[in-house]
Amino acid sequence: MLALLLFPCSALQAQGKTDIYILGKDKGSVSSMQANGITLLDARATAKKLGGSVELYAAAKQIKVAFPGMYAILSAPLAEAIINAQTVKLPAEVVASGSRIYVPAQFFMLPQVQKALDRQITFENNALVVEKNFTLAFTDKEQKNAYDRLRFFRKGNISFTSKQKNKHTVEVVFPSVVLKRNASLRLKDDFIRSFSISQRGKDAVLKVILGKKGKNWRFTEENGELVFACAETALPSAGAALPRQEEETPAKQTDMTPSVFADAAEDAKADVPVIKPAPQPVMKSGAPVITAKRKLRIVIDPGHGGKDPGATRRGSSQEKALNLTVSKHLYNYLKDQGFEVKMTRDKDVFVTLAGRSKMANDFKADLFISVHTNAAKRAAANGFEVYFRSDKATDAEAAEVAAFENEALQYEEAHYSFVDMLLESMAKNEFMNESSKLAGHIRNYVYKEPGIGIAVRQNNAIRQANFYVLRGVKAPAVLVEMGYISSSKDRARLNNKAAQKRMGQGIGKGIVSYLKAEGKISK
Ligand SMILES: [Zn+2]
Q1: With 293 labelled, which of 80, 91, 120, 301 sits at a CA distance of 20 to 30 A?
Q2: Are residues 458 and 339 in the same domain?
Q3: What φ, ψ does residue 230 adopt, rounded to 5°?
Q4: Cα of 55 to ligand 1 centre, how many Å?
Q5: How far, in Å, is the centroid of ligand 1 from the Cα of 27?
Q6: Per-residue model confidence (pLDDT) at position 410
């Protein structure tokens, strides 16, 4: 009623709301209106939800919206946008009303905006839908003594043709794909010297320059990803199950068959991980040399346990079990890297939240990693997230997650709360900056780790929240939400044995990367 009174001049406009969905998540709604059958959105609110920055000049009826690498100026009542100094036509006039500027929804679907955000943006059923727009991406390289491998993420059914163009060049063409970004890398290796992958019109083209030992190559699908493998010796047939070659173990000279197809065997071999009992970790070649006087100490905290199952779905999946399994993989990875590692629990037992942080402090932990699995009422909610502690949650959603994870508090005994409050008063915000950096490294490496199959959003995978379990820890501390047990897609990956191991390794690699970046370990 009030809205109609505010715009008596235009009978064609009716106030409403339009939902925004970003990567499957409901990001709430923005104010919108209809004009001549076209939906106009509150430019400021929409741009902010998409991660843009906004300058609003209400008196001039003008708004400046900026996304990475582009800006747009929209002025009422013009049916155009000035994007990076170029005029772009819009299907309807920009409308100013009160302190808001409304722009046609089509503005957010312009190729310039989609490109800047690296997203596919559509408008359907009165909702602006933002999705990942790529179907192919280079993810990782592996350089081993006996072979090189290049790994590629692919979405949906992607066909390709590969052929040897000349003695040193192999070309793989992917028709009708959207490449995440062009990439080229010089491996300077005997198997693969260099490669490049680039978008050429609707196709993507991978060019691999072989080295002097690059006599045998193959491009195949392995466990859902595409792999270019190259070795000197003959490559076994696709899908052949080979024993897994340990990541850091140099290939033996007698090993005639390179384990180029190791992942195929991973599902078959992997079982419930067993924690390596050796209290004296063996420093493998290639493990980082620790420069600190003592070995760095890392505490892994598998969330929940015992009478507290954490999030559950359909009786079959329990958060406490998933957390423990991945934590054991993480434990083994970090042990192999030469760290002193402690778990707050290594079996299905209940540990209080305050007890967990106390354990970390008694151990004099340098880092604290709490491992959890998320859950949401919305079945569409999915993806990997890392949280670090802040007094204020970044958004309502983060607060919701924190509230859920803090539920275990109901099991606490009063005196633990007292101990924790005491610890909290000592810790304060001292480690917030460090923790946010650690969160960034973990996010990046879980994103890079192939075979996990859980979305890692570059924009919002890192969150701040007020987690009880992180409060008392006197070290950089993060809480990982590996995925959503409430999402059928995530749940399938969380229960996949190979993906569980990859998740542990991805988190571990992020930790190592953080420690290297901070100069806490060398190499
Ligand atoms: Zn949890």
Answers
A1: 301
A2: yes
A3: -145, 130
A4: 39
A5: 22
A6: 47
